[in-house]
């Protein structure tokens, strides 16, 4: 009963503050596929690890995150063959409250040093019935990424995850909007269970979207409570003081995760951090630079035009990324796929980043299928279909991008393009 009342209250608040949490609906979306909700299996004990996911920490460590209903040891045991745990590491656990909801224990254990490109078997909280395994990313190119945003938890999401599961990728990059919990905290738990089969096997590196904010004026003033507790990323390692923006190296790629829903003014911590981070990049070690944001800086869909997270952030930060010769900027937010040419300040520019919107993971809000007409020449490919993309960085000069539409067989790529790195283009030397 208390739970029911709580949900009614939360729902009323959600409606009242829908504008504030960023659900700007200014176009007709086609019907979405049905929502799915993954409950805790009946045979789970209160100390069974669930919602396991992993993320890289520095060049040779991995963070293991999981949740139990009641307290269990914050320990991960691991080794390179099944059931033979030659190493173990201990970490910490925490929980959070959100209105009437209290989370389970959320664990955070960093393991390593680990060998590169190696399969490890592991178990959490010494639970013998649930063994997991993951593969560490390679130390050198090639490396294969999956990029997908705005996942949510619908039948479309399931279809996207099935396709991702069939690709042999090393690391997943997610430009924001994960669970679409929108204040209903049990949906974060459902999302954790939905993605566990994939997110426990490969590092999932994420940044936040508007659906992660979950701030309610006067009632829950702290933003990102669930996101920060459940999806902790390696920010300290890159000199950031916020889980909302950070960077890391993966093989020959420097990946920058920006925060669209935190301060990005020229005197903000994020701006100064970005400046410093770009200044430290060694193009000999990481010939490629990718950046991820949630709200797209270039977008010809009618959805999400004119938002300050897109326009002001672009105004403040575009020059920094351009001058650093960032190769590709990925965004989500718009529930469709769009690929631009290299563009700076609105104009095609051979030394500027390629901009790609990949907010088509499959969430319950449906597709954004109206576009501005006529299509500007800088927009090369645009389509409102759910899907995901694979990006294989082959060597220091070449990478191949393949967008997969869910409706197609996974072997079919609907938009394939080769990119060459800006660091290898003599005309783009600074
Ligand atoms: C467990 O792994 C270690 C180190 O790889 C190896 O020496 C040992 O033989 C293994 N034990 C079993 C029972 O497989
Ligand atoms: C996801 O799709 C697969 C394959 O179609 C199906 O077996 C599975 O039951 C689906 N999962 C959910 C949660 O709907
Ligand atoms: C990089 O990969 C591309 C595409 O496979 C290939 O054509 C090129 O020769 C490679 N460059 C080097 C230096 O191996
Ligand atoms: Fe969004």
UniProtKB/TrEMBL annotation:
Reactions catalysed according to its record: a phosphate monoester + H2O = an alcohol + phosphate
Coiled-coil zones: none
Record flagged with keyword rRNA-binding: no
Enzyme class, broadest EC rank: hydrolase
Domain Calcineurin-like phosphoesterase: 143-337
Gene3D superfamilies listed in its UniProt record: 3.60.21.10, Purple acid phosphatase-like, N-terminal (2.60.40.380)
Keywords: Glycoprotein, Hydrolase, Iron, Signal, Zinc
CDD domains: MPP_PAPs
InterPro entries according to UniProt: Calcineurin-like_PHP, Metallo-depent_PP-like, MPP_PAP, PAPs-like, PAPs_C, PAPs_N, Purple_acid_Pase-like_N
Sequence ranges assigned to domain Purple acid phosphatase C-terminal in this UniProt record: 352-410
The protein's Enzyme Commission number: 3.1.3.2
Entry superkingdom: Eukaryota
Domain Purple acid phosphatase N-terminal, first and last residues per copy: 49-136
UniProt cofactor(s): Zn(2+); Fe cation
GO molecular function list: acid phosphatase activity; metal ion binding
Family: Belongs to the metallophosphoesterase superfamily. Purple acid phosphatase family.
Protein's recorded name: Purple acid phosphatase
UniProt source species: Hibiscus trionum
Source organism phylogeny: Eukaryota, Viridiplantae, Streptophyta, Embryophyta, Tracheophyta
């Amino acid at each position: 009963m208390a739970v029911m009342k709580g949900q009614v209250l939360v729902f009323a608040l959600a409606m009242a503050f829908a504008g504030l949490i960023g659900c700007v609906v200014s176009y007709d979306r086609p019907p979405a596929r049905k929502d799915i909700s993954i409950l805790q299996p009946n045979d789970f004990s209160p100390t069974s690890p669930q919602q396991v996911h992993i993320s890289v920490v520095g060049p040779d460590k991995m963070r293991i995150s999981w949740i139990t209903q009641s307290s269990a040891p914050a320990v991960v045991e691991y080794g390179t063959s099944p059931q033979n745990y030659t190493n173990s590491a201990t970490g910490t656990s925490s929980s959070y409250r959100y209105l009437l909801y209290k989370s389970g224990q959320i664990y955070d254990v960093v393991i390593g040093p680990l060998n590169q490109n190696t399969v490890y078997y592991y178990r959490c909280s010494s639970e013998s019935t649930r063994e997991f395994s993951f593969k560490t990313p390679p130390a050198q190119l090639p490396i294969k990424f999956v990029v997908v945003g705005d996942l949510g938890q619908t039948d479309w999401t399931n279809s996207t995850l099935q396709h991702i599961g069939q690709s042999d990728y090393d690391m997943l990059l997610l430009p924001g909007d994960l669970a679409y919990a929108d204040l209903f905290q049990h949906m974060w738990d459902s999302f954790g269970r939905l993605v566990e089969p994939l997110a426990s096997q490969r590092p999932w590196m994420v940044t936040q979207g508007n659906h992660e904010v979950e701030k309610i004026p006067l009632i829950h003033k702290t933003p990102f409570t669930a996101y920060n507790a459940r999806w902790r990323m390696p920010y300290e390692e890159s000199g950031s003081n916020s889980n909302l923006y950070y960077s890391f190296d993966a093989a020959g790629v420097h990946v920058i995760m920006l925060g669209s829903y935190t301060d990005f003014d020229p005197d903000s911590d994020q701006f100064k951090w970005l400046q410093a981070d770009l200044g430290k990049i060694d193009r000999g070690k990481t010939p490629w630079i990718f950046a991820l944001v949630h709200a797209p800086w270039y977008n010809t869909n009618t959805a999400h035009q004119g938002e300050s997270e897109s326009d002001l952030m672009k105004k403040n930060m575009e020059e920094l990324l351009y001058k650093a010769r960032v190769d590709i900027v990925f965004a989500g937010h718009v529930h469709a796929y769009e690929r631009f040419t290299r563009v700076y300040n609105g104009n095609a520019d051979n030394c500027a980043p390629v901009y790609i919107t990949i907010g088509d993971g499959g969430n319950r809000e449906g597709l954004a299928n109206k576009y501005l007409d006529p299509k500007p020449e800088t927009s090369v490919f645009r389509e409102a279909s759910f899907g995901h993309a694979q990006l294989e960085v082959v060597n220091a000069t070449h990478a191949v991008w393949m967008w997969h539409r869910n409706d197609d067989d996974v072997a079919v790529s609907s938009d394939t393009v080769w990119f060459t790195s800006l660091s290898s283009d003599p005309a783009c030397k600074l």
